């Protein structure tokens, strides 16, 4: 079952993000890795900044989460994670379809350039990597991330957005 997150889900969302983010260890630049991957304070700040989570619940347990953030003319998919032991069961695809179906706005996703599995997942769902120039512009416009993260990330755009720009 997919449902909107409530404040009672905060700890479980935090656990899933930090569990699933272990896949990035040794993949993303070492200077971008930290423990925990996402501190509670950062998650709280992002929720306060408008990131709304959906939860995938299986047998009464939240096993996957995905957030969306309205940034005016676009929406951003944020923090798409499935608990390590549940990966590969289609939860991420179901969450993504649910979020895409909930908006008419163009959708953008930022992820680590070295996370080939994440890029492939979004491409399988119709997203395309934008050009380096457009990526830099988008990350600086819609995200609040350090410059080093801009350098080591990619942005993928859905069909609603990419009809307007050159792709890689």
TrEMBL record:
Domain of life: Bacteria
Signal peptide interval: none
SUPFAM superfamilies: Acyl-CoA N-acyltransferases (Nat)
Residues annotated as domain N-acetyltransferase: 1-148
Gene Ontology terms for molecular function: acyltransferase activity, transferring groups other than amino-acyl groups
Annotated protein name in UniProt: N-acetyltransferase domain-containing protein
Organism: Deinococcus marmoris
